[in-house]
């Protein structure tokens, strides 16, 4: 009896702490919004600039940070909306019904699904998390995560327009993404099987996980927007942190060192993979940036940039650490890095 009372007391204290934490977060959010509105409405930037001399590098940092956030927000909104549609309209039975039972055969449909799903790397993490919660196997979900930001029609079109004079880059990008994503899924299956790698939320610890909405009680579309708004603000903090780190690298990274390291056939793909990671460009736009490096880097290095960046960059890495267990995320980073590098090197040897 005493142990049960202590257990109830501990659960009550945890509930109180969780409630206070949520309220403090909401209060901080409201204060930040009020500060933003005040500065946006009343602050005279030109007058401030005459009083305080701000180094040009920090002005560049501000511009890059805002550009990353503004570029990512529409795709984040798309991602959380798709995630919410899955939450409300897709049942676990439906997910299990259309996934082949064989773990290896299921790799191919997952890669094909990525070719028709218009989601970039900014939005893919919440979609994948929701699919896993609905019963999709871990390795299949990460095949989709790896290939969808590259194989989708919008990215294919942008890559075509950026490299019209070099179609081997277009074909190479799509082909490598398709094959390597399945290899990544296979390796994840071999190392992690179908173990649960999602982080446990405070609501799940307390047994207060939200239940599926009853269609007779709550309008499904209204519930979809509720889920989308909650998930958007939950993801927002990771997006802002990742965008800030990426803008720091873009501002202070020495381009001359980058070019000197990129002259070697074996080191240049690694350099461009690192460059893609820290730049955190949206996959719909990265082909035009890669095309600007065409005179300085070999096609293999450009492919490493175009394949690795959408699979793994600072923004989605921060999101992955927010929603998945640390050990798994570190393993995923290592798997993607090794497989993409070896895939690009093999591509260079063959073609």
Automatic annotation (TrEMBL):
It comes from the Bacteria. Coiled coil: none annotated. It is found in: Cell membrane. It is a multi-pass membrane protein. Keywords: Cell membrane, Membrane, Transmembrane, Transmembrane helix. Pfam families: ArsP_1 (PF03773). The chain crosses the membrane at residues 27-43, 63-90, 102-128, 140-163, 175-192, 287-308, 328-350. Belongs to the UPF0718 family. This is Uncharacterized membrane protein YraQ (UPF0718 family).
């Amino acid at each position: 009896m005493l142990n049960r009372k202590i257990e109830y007391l501990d659960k009550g204290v945890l509930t109180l702490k969780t409630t206070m934490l949520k309220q403090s977060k909401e209060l901080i959010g409201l204060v930040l919004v009020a500060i933003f509105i005040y500065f946006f409405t009343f602050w005279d930037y030109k007058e401030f600039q005459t009083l305080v001399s701000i180094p040009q590098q920090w002005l560049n940092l501000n511009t890059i940070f805002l550009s990353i956030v503004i570029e990512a927000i529409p795709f984040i909104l798309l991602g959380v909306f798709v995630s919410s549609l899955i939450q409300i309209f897709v049942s676990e039975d439906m997910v299990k019904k259309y996934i082949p039972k064989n773990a290896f055969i299921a790799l191919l449909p997952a890669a094909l699904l990525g070719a028709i799903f218009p989601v970039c790397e900014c939005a893919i993490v919440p979609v994948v998390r929701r699919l896993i919660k609905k019963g999709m196997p871990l390795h299949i979900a990460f095949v989709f995560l790896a290939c969808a930001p590259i194989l989708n029609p919008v990215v294919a079109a942008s890559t075509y327009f950026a490299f019209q004079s070099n179609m081997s880059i277009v074909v190479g990008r799509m082909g490598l993404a398709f094959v390597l994503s399945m290899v990544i899924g296979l390796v994840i299956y071999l190392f992690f099987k179908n173990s649960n790698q999602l982080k446990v939320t405070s609501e799940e610890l307390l047994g207060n996980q939200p239940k599926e909405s009853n269609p007779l009680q709550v309008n499904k579309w209204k519930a979809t927007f509720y889920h989308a708004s909650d998930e958007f603000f939950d993801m927002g903090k990771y997006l802002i942190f990742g965008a800030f780190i990426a803008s720091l690298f873009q501002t202070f990274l020495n381009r001359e060192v980058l070019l000197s390291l990129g002259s070697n056939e074996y080191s240049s793909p690694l350099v461009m993979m690192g460059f893609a990671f820290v730049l955190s460009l949206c996959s719909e736009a990265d082909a035009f940036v890669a095309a600007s490096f065409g005179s300085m880097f070999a096609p293999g290095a450009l492919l490493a940039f175009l394949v690795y960046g959408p699979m793994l960059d600072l923004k989605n890495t921060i999101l992955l650490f927010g929603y998945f267990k640390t050990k798994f995320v570190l393993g995923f980073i290592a798997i993607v890095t090794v497989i993409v590098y070896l895939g690009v090197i093999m591509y260079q040897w063959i073609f």
